[in-house]
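Structural prep section.
Before we set up the soaks we want a predicted structure of the protein with cytidine-5'-triphosphate in place, mainly to decide which crystallisation condition to try first. Input record follows.
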Amino acid sequence: MLKGKRILLVISGGIAAYKALELIRRLRERGASVRCAMTKSAEQFVTALSVSSLSGEKVSTDLFSLTDEAEMGHIELSRDADLIVVAPATANILARMAQGLADDMATTLLLATDKPVLAAPAMNVRMWYHPATQRNVEQLKKDGVAFIGPNDGEMACGEYGPGRMAEPLEIVAAIEAQFGKPLPKHLTLVEPAGKRAVEALQIAQDLKGKRAIVTSGPTYEAIDPVRYIANRSSGKQGHAIAAALAARGAEVTLVTGPVNLPDPPGVKTVHVEAARDMFSACFLDLPVDIAVFAAAVADWRVAVEASQKIKKTGDLPPVLKLAENPDILRAISTTDKKRRPALVVGFAAETETVVAHAQKKLASKGCDWILANDVSEGTGTFGGDSNTVHLVTQGSVENWPRLSKPEVAARLAERIAQHFSGPKSKPVLVKKGS
Ligand code: CTP
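Run finished without errors. Recording the tokens verbatim:
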């Protein structure tokens, strides 16, 4: 997985810097090459000599080193990598990254790069919780930085809480996840919704003036105050669609169930739990021009939610009586003309005869398009990063190749823009640098 991959590891100054040494070792064991850049304060914790002997490469420490500039300039260095990892990422370097400062080699590399960045924060728990740090982390997520950790635990300063850097093997898993390997279940990687922000800037604003609703994620249907019925939807597809529509200039409201994703930049995000809340949030946002229903809404909820935690009685297990949830897609597709969006797109999650089922669903739900995807076992669509979809409209089926979820989103946004602009004026991709 990491064989031949080029990692640029930025080590900033915290006690966890010693763990960066093990990280280098683990990455090299897996066949990755690791170039390192250290901040001045990192050198208080580990020496450039040990970093260089473990990585087998020269370490970049000084922005103005003439020899380094002659051999490989900082721009080139930051672009030569497949991925930049900041570990440990102190509160200080996160603040500098969030501000876009380039006042040493490490931050210059980070500002000059066009490659994905993964940060493994490490700091005192109060520093982590400080609104300034949280603000910086939010900004960085929006800018496209992914995060692993920090973990809960006892710190060097004796306090307890989140702030410990993720363990080297956890960081390795997060790095592998950047290259497409599924992340082990016990780890949480915050993936940036704004990853494509730079590309988005170059996309024609052909949905400007249009309003859109997108639903995303699962819904949680409470059984009692502590238990709920849910499903494995990650929200990745719905969130990517909201971001893609916003990137083309639409004013987007994303109504999302509980997911582990940051709110997409430039999108009004409404967080809900149950299907009924998702239903009302969508209706509250009408009228809109475009509605895309990507949420995996629970079809059923418990008819009567217990007000107290259901206890074991020693007799038979409790029987849960279910009631059907409102169908948001159908309700909005069939609402009165004044409120019905001009274009309603549903999803069909099918495990067999995908297109035939989707055609039936198109008719039964009354929507205009269905994006049908195969979620049968082994496809890895649920929770995964890619999707094979068929765009089913009245009288036509387009089979799209296997694409990443952001690519599916971008293609759907493009088709939606074409739908509104008519076949003559296709959306224009403005070339980089123009
Ligand atoms: N949907 C919705 N509200 C519901 C159920 C589904 O808005 N209560 C939407 C989904 O967001 C999706 C589409 O309906 O766009 C299809 O959902 P799917 O789960 O594939 O179909 P179901 O309606 O559940 O039908 P079936 O279970 O028979 O496949």
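Observations: The CA atoms of residues 35 and 57 lie 6 Å apart.
Flagged for discussion at group meeting.
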